[in-house]
Specification:
Layout (H helix, E strand, L loop, with lengths): L1 H17 L5 H26 L5 H26 L9 H22 L6 H28 L5 H26 L5 H25 L3 E2 L6 E2 L6
Length: 225
């Protein structure tokens, strides 16, 4: 079992080292493999440890399956349509399905503790509200004041950061509730990284300054500018 863990970490490190130096297609392959590795890790954990309550992990797996489908669809659209890729697209449907599944999964994790802990919800809400205030101007305001953006694009553009804030609330609730089991800490750490990267990406998209790896031009498919 320890050998499997070290092999997994070694492959992840190798992917990170190779990523800046490979072609666009190579980057896509590494990215998709990293998404698929999450499903492999959850499946391996379920088979190895056989938790008494499997439903949260199965829901988490279903959520990351949607995420992988979104990644794969986005890669296909990038290679077939390129910068003309619509927003929202079929990839966004899969990405948006990720959130409710993960919400329910975290809710099941919290329910398994056996006590509601309202104080932890208050603490998590305070931190999330603070994050929303800080992110309002760079992330939400561009979509609200946009004059030429398509309505569906604006709605989808705002949906991502709102859902990320909801995910941040759930993750902070797990931390405030001191769910310190190693598996919970790994899930929490992974989701914190995901939310952080996603919020940075969405800010750059809202400002119209995100640059694709395969293009020297800024991409503003969902930018109001």
């Amino acid at each position: 079992m320890r050998r499997i863990r070290w092999t997994y970490l070694a492959l992840a490190a190798l992917g990170l080292l190779l990523y800046p130096f490979v072609s666009v297609t190579g980057k896509d392959v590494i990215y998709l493999l990293s998404s698929a590795s999450v499903l492999i890790a959850i499946g391996w954990g379920l088979r190895s440890y056989r938790p008494a309550k499997r439903s949260p992990w199965l829901l988490l797996m279903a959520g990351f399956t949607c995420f992988l489908v979104g990644d794969a669809t986005s890669v296909v659209l990038d290679h077939t349509i390129g910068e003309a890729k619509p927003f929202p697209s079929l990839a966004d449907v899969a990405y948006l399905l990720f959130y409710p599944l993960v919400y329910v999964a975290i809710g099941r994790f919290l329910k398994s503790t056996g006590h509601p802990d309202r104080a932890a919800w208050v603490d998590a809400s305070i931190w999330t509200t603070g994050a929303a205030v800080v992110l309002w101007e760079p992330l939400f305001e561009p979509y609200i004041v946009a004059s030429g953006a398509h309505a569906l694009s604006s709605i989808a553009g705002m949906a991502y950061p709102l859902l990320d804030l909801g995910l941040l609330l759930m993750v902070l609730r797990m931390l405030a509730g001191r769910m310190l089991y190693p598996a919970h800490l790994l899930v929490t750490a992974g989701l914190v990284c995901l939310v952080t990267v996603d919020l940075v990406f969405n800010i750059r998209q809202a400002q119209g300054v995100y640059v694709q790896a395969n293009s020297p031009m800024s991409v503003g498919c969902c930018s109001p500018s």
